[in-house]
Amino acid sequence: MISVSAKIERFKLREVFTISRGSRTEAEVVTVIAQDAAHKGWGEAVPYKHYGETPESVLAQIKQMTDAIAEEADPIAALQSHPAGAARNALDCALWDLRAKSTGRPVWDLLGLTAPKTVTTAFTLSLETPDVMREKAARESARPLLKIKLGGEGDLARLEAVREGAPNSDIVVDANEGWTVESYTEIAPTLLRLGVKMVEQPLPAGEDAALAGIERPLPVCADESCHTSASLPDLKGKYDMINIKLDKTGGLTEALKLRDDARAAGFQVMMGCMVGTSLAMAPAVLVAQGAEVIDLDGPLLLGEDRDPPITFEGSLMSAPSPELWG
């Protein structure tokens, strides 16, 4: 018999983190512990207000899901019939961790995958004034890939400033649904001139049909428009890449399915994250293997983390230790 408990935890950020929808000074996460008579498995989710989630609503959903799958012979499989989102993510990942610990086999082996290798993650610069973004870009200019949060008036100046600060780094940009067709068309030539490699979610998810009718001079990645494998048919012709996040897919199980289905449908893959701890990144490392863009820098943005954390050497991210997850 598996028992489940969940709690809200808060981790301070290194500095204020801003996107087009607002700012935060801490990561507020929901931690799940799934246990049998001898072992404990851990999972973490980041409730996202933009998707109608709060820490309290996620706790309630976890309780409902746990009650529904309590007597199932395969609770992970049974869980997949419940709604995707942060609650299912935390529970799914905790159950996988528990299965690994109870069988003595790592999750990657249980799933028939190869052992995860070190990956290179992007480092995110939050939305600031051009001068501040130039300064922060210069501070992080040794990193091979920077992700730039945009989505407001003055984006052209911000892009120019970041390129000045980090002349040798590759850049991807994330508009967080903050542009219109007109503003995207206006800014696209500058993106190309500055060597930007990809633009993420330029238009609001409900208004992205226009992407099918305009030229896409560089790859466009679906984030808010892509949650699970069921999203894929509607993305054809509008996007070139999809951003997989465990809190959107509802866990590792669906994230792997989305990755494989996306590849089969001709999409490139980005592995992303919410601002969470090393526990949230750990299962994502399995999905990130072979991705064209990896953005799992949540722990690098924190002032405090799990113990033991994932190890970073600059932007090189190691696979999690079994003591952390999996």
Write a short abstract of this structure.
With 326 residues, this protein is of the alpha/beta class.
Tell me the β content. 15-25%
Extract low-pLDDT stretches: none
Strand order of the largest sheet: 5-6-7-8-9-10-11-12
What's the count of strands?
Answer: 14
End-to-end separation? 20 Å
* Number of continuous helical runs: 11
Major β-sheet profile: 8 strands, parallel
Shape: globular
Query: Which structural class is indicated by helix and strand composition?
Result: alpha/beta
- Name the helix and strand elements from N-terminus to C-terminus, one letter apiece: EEEHHHHEEHEHEHEEHEHHEHEEE
What is the helix fraction of residues, given as a range?
25-40%
Compute the CA-based radius of gyration: 19 Å
The overall pLDDT average reads 95
